[in-house]
């Protein structure tokens, strides 16, 4: 799990300067070789069973159907005693597995183990460091692999069932159950970039759950468990956990499966918060904002003609664009309205 850090009056958002990095409490080390597979994973659309009353038996039926699709991921570094254990979900019978980037880490040896004890070596295929996601490929027979069904996290509602399956504290195949406690949460992630639209749940997760699936009552993956609140620094669950929504993973999955590392756009500014509309307090030298002529003291009022009222408006708009896009940024400077052409640059998330 990643520990959630809090910040003060000056906030670094998804287009800002760097900030304190978040460290996964079960961070692992991983091998970087890249696969050239271009398999595309498609979402399966099951019947809508929302509103159906669930018994203990029906929850057990969901778990029985999906538990075999959750794997254990061990990482070790032959040159040290470092390493750890995380979780992952099976995407296809070719051995592709979705997990957290902080589970696979940077360098080392990966091993994947299924619930029945079948195991095999694995390598990293592609990464989305900004959303703490990675795809690895395990050398395991196809007939042993049971892919999960990917859900639609846009349909998730507060109060619905949430089932987490993973390997907390190396206790394999552990199942916990709760509800979706909140939606649209944000978490400061790698390199100071915010992960957005996270799902909050009270299903218990702990070190080792990272990369495992958060399931709904239909047995669909709605998120990848990634973080816990950690106000006491004890690294144990206190009732608030977070998952990367599965739609975030689906957006970038084809690229990761093709062996790509995902880049995310930013302007290269630092904002004062709370500030409505956003007030720039610093511009990173050489960034897109610097190239486009933005300055400290500018107030951003619109992007490409769309009104920007809040901090979240700005962050969400940038996240939907691509590195290299040029935005028309409307600002107020010294009482005058200006519109500047500002390119988006890539986050440095190393």
What is the strand and helix layout of this fold?
Layout: E1 2-3, E2 10-11, H1 56-66, E3 70-76, E4 83-90, E5 96-99, H2 101-104, E6 109-113, E7 119-128, E8 133-138, E9 149-150, E10 161-166, E11 174-188, E12 194-201, E13 213-215, E14 220-228, E15 241-245, H3 246-257, E16 265-266, E17 269-272, E18 279-283, H4 288-292, E19 299-303, E20 306-307, H5 311-319, E21 326-333, E22 336-343, E23 345-346
Parallel strand pairs: 1-14, 9-14
Antiparallel strand pairs: 2-17, 3-4, 3-6, 4-5, 5-8, 6-7, 7-8, 10-11, 10-13, 11-12, 12-15, 13-14, 14-15, 16-23, 17-18, 19-20, 19-21, 21-22
Summarize the structure in words.
By secondary structure, the chain is mainly beta. 12% of the residues lie in helices and 37% in strands. It has 2 domains: 2-43 and 53-257, Thrombin, subunit H; 265-346, Pdz3 Domain (Roll), CATH 2.30.42.10. It has helices at residues 56-66, 101-104, 246-257, 288-292, 311-319, and strands at residues 2-3, 10-11, 70-76, 83-90, 96-99, 109-113, 119-128, 133-138, 149-150, 161-166, 174-188, 194-201, 213-215, 220-228, 241-245, 265-266, 269-272, 279-283, 299-303, 306-307, 326-333, 336-343, 345-346. A hairpin with a 4-residue loop joins strand 7 (119-128) and strand 8. Residues 3-52 have low confidence and may be disordered.
Per the principal axes of the C-alpha atoms, what is the gross shape? elongated
Helix content: 10-25%
Series of secondary-structure elements, N-terminal to C-terminal: EEHEEEHEEEEEEEEEEHEEEHEEHEEE
Kindly state the number of beta strands: 23
Q: Tell me, what is the CATH class of the largest domain?
A: Mainly Beta
Major sheet summary line: 6 strands, antiparallel, barrel
Average of pLDDT? 84
What's the end-to-end separation, in Å?
19 Å
Structural class by SSE content:
mainly beta
Number of domains: 2
* CATH T-level topology of the largest domain: Thrombin, subunit H
Strand content: 35-45%
């Amino acid at each position: 799990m990643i520990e959630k850090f809090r910040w003060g009056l000056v906030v670094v958002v998804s287009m800002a300067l760097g900030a304190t990095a978040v460290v996964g409490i079960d961070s692992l080390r991983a091998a970087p070789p890249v696969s050239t597979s271009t398999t595309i994973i498609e979402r399966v659309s099951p019947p809508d069973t929302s509103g159906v009353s669930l018994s203990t038996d029906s929850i057990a039926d969901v778990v029985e159907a999906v538990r075999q699709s959750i794997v254990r991921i061990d990482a070790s570094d032959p040159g040290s005693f470092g390493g750890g254990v995380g979780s992952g979900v099976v995407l296809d019978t070719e051995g592709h597995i979705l997990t957290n980037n902080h589970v696979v880490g940077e360098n080392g040896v990966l091993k994947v183990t299924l619930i029945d004890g079948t195991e095999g070596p694995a390598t990293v295929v592609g990464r989305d460091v900004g959303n703490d996601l990675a795809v690895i490929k395990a050398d395991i027979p196809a007939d042993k692999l049971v892919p999960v069904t990917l859900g639609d996290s846009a349909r998730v509602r507060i109060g619905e069932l949430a089932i987490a399956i993973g390997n907390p504290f190396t206790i394999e195949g552990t199942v916990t159950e709760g509800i979706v406690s909140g939606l649209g949460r944000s978490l400061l992630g790698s390199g100071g970039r915010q992960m957005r639209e996270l799902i909050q749940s009270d299903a218990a997760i702990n070190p080792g759950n990272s990369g495992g699936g958060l399931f709904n009552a239909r047995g669909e993956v709605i998120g990848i468990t990634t973080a816990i609140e950690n106000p006491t620094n004890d690294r144990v669950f206190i009732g608030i956990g977070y998952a990367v929504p599965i739609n975030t993973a689906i957006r970038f999955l084809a690229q990761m499966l093709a062996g790509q590392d995902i880049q995310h756009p930013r302007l290269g500014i630092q904002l004062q918060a709370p500030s409505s509309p956003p007030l720039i307090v610093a511009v990173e030298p050489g960034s897109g904002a610097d190239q486009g002529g933005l300055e400290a003291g500018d107030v951003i009022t619109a992007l490409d003609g769309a009104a920007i009222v809040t901090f979240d408006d700005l962050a969400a708009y940038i996240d939907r664009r691509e590195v290299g896009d040029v935005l028309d940024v409307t600002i107020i400077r010294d009482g005058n309205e200006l519109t500047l052409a500002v390119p988006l640059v890539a986050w440095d998330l190393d």
